[in-house]
User: Fold these one by one.
Assistant:
Number 1:
Amino acid sequence: MRLDPRFADFHPASDLLEGRVVLVTGAGDGIGRAIALLCAAHGATSVLLGRTVEKLERVYDEIRSAGGPEPAIYPMDLSGAMPPDYEALAARVESELDRLDGLVHNAALLGELGPIEHSSPEGWQELIQVNVNAPFLLTRALLPLVRRTATAHGHASIIFTSSGVGRRGRAYWGGYSVSKFAIEGLNQVLADELDGASGVRVNSLNPGPVRTRMRANAFPAEDPQTLITPEEAARGWLWLLDARDLHGAALEAQVP
Ligand code: NDP
């Protein structure tokens, strides 16, 4: 597998996202970290949402030492966050940044792989909480600001992060696979609702196999050097954040 040429050959100017605000969940590690860094390198103010403050602070420092716009750190454990927490987040983004051009739903748990009949109910619930309920609650709370940004500036983008097992079920991928099917459903329903003049683009992107902790946990025997890096994968998100004509699509970041 290799990065789709649309993304690999995308070399935008470093001010592509200047003045724009992009919130990334799971911004402390893996693909989310790479997306936040790449957005900042192209001028965006990144809102770094994640559960491990030290990781978010490291990303903050990396952005600042590379000369990027000052990011905002928003520590939040999506497994325990309640609707009022999402409302508080939305109020803070609105009062401090006054716009949201990109909402990147990236954070997810892999959970335990194994047969459905051996899946623990507690593990299942946590997976659905982080992988499905959190993107729903975050979208619900932030949509007014995203819509207002699109109206004022012509364009805004919501991106859901999918997976191959969210498009075709596979044995032993349990709650993770089911959660990614739900994400595809959320993508389709929201895209259909926002079709028309809102200017908000809604799409899902499957990164394919990427060299991260999650992938290593799922495939411990695999040589990570055979996989694309999070930095390469992040180019797909940058491309999609800028794409004005794509709406309701389910994209693949890699091609055979
Ligand atoms: P990682 O495990 O490397 O990173 C996941 C990120 O999500 C981390 O920053 C993690 O925070 C955060 N996170 C997990 N649980 C919570 C929580 N409860 N609250 C807040 N943040 C949380 O995964 P990847 O980078 O590999 O995956 C990114 C996305 O890409 C996911 O949606 C995944 O499903 C998808 N994907 C990845 C593939 C791959 O090959 N890597 C393939 C297909 C899809 P912390 O570091 O603090 O734990």
Note: The two ends are 4 Å apart (CA to CA).
Number 2:
Amino acid sequence: MKKVTINDLEFELFIPYEKIRSIVEEMAERMNKDFEGKSPLFLCILNGSFMFATEIFKRISSLDAEISFIKLASYSGTKTSGEIKQLIGLNEDLTGRMVVVLEDIVDSGITVANTIEQIQAKNPSEIKIATLLLKPDALKIKVQLDYVGIEIPNDFIVGYGLDYDRKGRNLIDIYKVIEK
Ligand code: IMP
Ligand code: MG
């Protein structure tokens, strides 16, 4: 079993890249069908979602799609702080547009709920939420989720864009923490 150490924590291989890729391919295929005839604006929530966003956006090949980025931070170490800091804001005119939010992982749901609120205030025609990963047991609030790649247990993970104290984003596979 592949293992990595980041700072004080040890992680083991959890979701290999091949599995991630095939899940993203399925999500993109569904979106290409569901959004036919529309011109969606994909909105990637930085930092964690950059790999997922790249992987999915290049497969949205049959649509007249655009992509933009916002930067939020809520995690500190291995716990969500519950407080969202906005580091890069939303400058696009969203009036009458279809917006598809791309999130790496939904944990408490606070980030997605906060993002939906901000987008809603800009009068889009429609909002869809896509997340690569979901920790159903960690949800603290009910959130709208339209596309969910993989449901996982309530363990801390890194890789494929997700970090532990800013490290581990460059791992191609997803690893989970080994509880000691
Ligand atoms: P939420 O606001 O609690 O739903 O947390 C969402 C954000 O926290 C995600 O966008 C991630 O960036 C980060 N996050 C949640 N769980 C993990 C994890 O297991 N590893 C790394 N980052 C995580
Ligand atoms: Mg994120």
Note: The two ends are 17 Å apart (CA to CA).
